[in-house]
Amino acid sequence: MARRTATKTVISWALLLGIPLISEGILLCMYNPHSHTFAQRQSEVYGWFAVLSLVLVLLARPLKLMLQRRMLGVAAFVYSVIHTWLAYLAVFDRDWESVEFLSKPDQWAIYAGVVALLGFLPLTLTSTHFAMRQMGKHWKTLHRLGPPMTLLAIVHTVWVGVHFGVDPMKWTSILLALLTLLIFGWRTRKEKRT
Q1: From the CB of residue 149, how many other CB atoms can be counted at a distance below 10 Å?
Q2: What single-letter DSSP state applies at residue 34?
Q3: With the C-alpha atoms ordered 135, 5, 80, 171, is the resulting torsion angle positive or negative?
Q4: pLDDT at 180 over 70
Q5: Residue boundaries of the structural domains of the chain
């Protein structure tokens, strides 16, 4: 059992590190590495990796990824920091005051991303066995911030991320409909058990 767990952990780390490296290679093939577009796309890719990792954390139980949940959460934070840094360099041209020139909804979406990133900081810092022992029952209370922070990250992504030609209101409507179906399905399944 321990060997299988170790193998899964190695595979998980390989995927968490390998997929971004492969995406970097694809971006290098598609864009000039010294261009502004390359840096923007790089930022977007890491933002999507962060959101994907966060969604996997939330779906860890049904996907049987409970042993990889902590690793996914830490990876999501690292991807978020990389995304933020690359956005600072490419999108904001090394000037945070550039946010003031965005539309109000885009500004609020940026702020949602910042709050999510700051909210994940204590969760990442307390993701160790030592922190769990030191905090006792308060550790679980703190880590219940994960889903609301994930929701903020998703709001940030929906409103200012790459939309593939779909306007943010449509994205939001689609996400809310899917979330409603997911919750309805979960509650119906739970009621059938009792």
Answers
A1: 20
A2: T
A3: negative
A4: no
A5: 2-162, 166-194
